[in-house]
Fold this sequence. Notes:
Keywords: Dioxygenase, Iron, Metal-binding, Oxidoreductase. This protein has helices at 29-42, 93-105, and strands spanning 12-15, 18-21, 59-64, 67-70, 75-78, 115-121, 127-130, 142-148, 151-155, 165-169, 174-177, 186-188, 203-209. The protein has 212 residues and is of the alpha+beta class.
Amino acid sequence: xxxxxxxxxxxxxxxxxxxxxxxxxxxxxxxxxxxxxxxxxxxxxxxxxxxxxxxxxxxxxxxxxxxxxxxxxxxxxxxxxxxxxxxxxxxxxxxxxxxxxxxxxxxxxxxxxxxxxxxxxxxxxxxxxxxxxxxxxxxxxxxxxxxxxxxxxxxxxxxxxxxxxxxxxxxxxxxxxxxxxxxxxxxxxxxxxxxxxxxxxxxxxxxxxxxx
Length: 212
Ligand code: MD3
Ligand code: FE
C-alpha cells in the first residue's frame, strides 16, 4: 500500500497492512461513548474467565451479530450474550459507518463488520500479548478505535518471540489492521491514569470484526 504521509500521525503505516489514522474518530468520540453507554445497559461490561482460573483485566461486552466470549473452557464467538441469554445489541449505524470509513481510508473497500467488541481498561489493566484468530475470515481487516485514557499498544510480529514496538494510542485514534498484520501478536500495557481533558477515567477500545 502506498504510504502517502509517512511522517505524520494522521496516516501512519505501522507495518505490513496496519494503518494508524491519528484522531480519525475524535470528532465523534462523545457520540461513540454515548452509544457504548446504551449498549452496556443491555449487555453490561463483565470480566471473562480465562484458562487457568483467572479473569481478564479488561472488562468486555459486544454488539452485532456476534460477541466474543471466554469462560475458562475456551474462547469463541457466540450470537447470544451468556450473561443475559439475549442476542447482543445491534451494531449502531454510527459504528458501522465509522468502521467502513476507516477501513476505506486504509485501502479496504466494503468493510461490513459482524461484531463490535468493546473493551474497558481501568487504570492498571492491560492485555497480554496474543493473536486474534478465532475469526473464520482472516482476510478482512480489524478496525480498532481508542477512546479515553491513552495507552501503549504493543505491536509484535508473526511469532511470539518477535521484537515488539510500542505505539501510544490516544483518544480518537483509529487503527486498521489488515493484510499480514492481521495475524500479528499484540497487547496493551497496563493503562496509567492521567488528566485527559476528556473527563474519562478509563480507556475504551472498540474493535470491529468480520467473523464468518
Ligand atoms: C491486530 N484489543 O480485543 S486493539 C482485542 O486495545 C485486542 O483493547 C486491544 O487486542 C485493545 O483482541 C488492542 C488493536 C487490535 C485489535 C485486534 C487486532 C489490533 C489487532 C487483530 C489483529 C491484529
Ligand atoms: Fe487482540
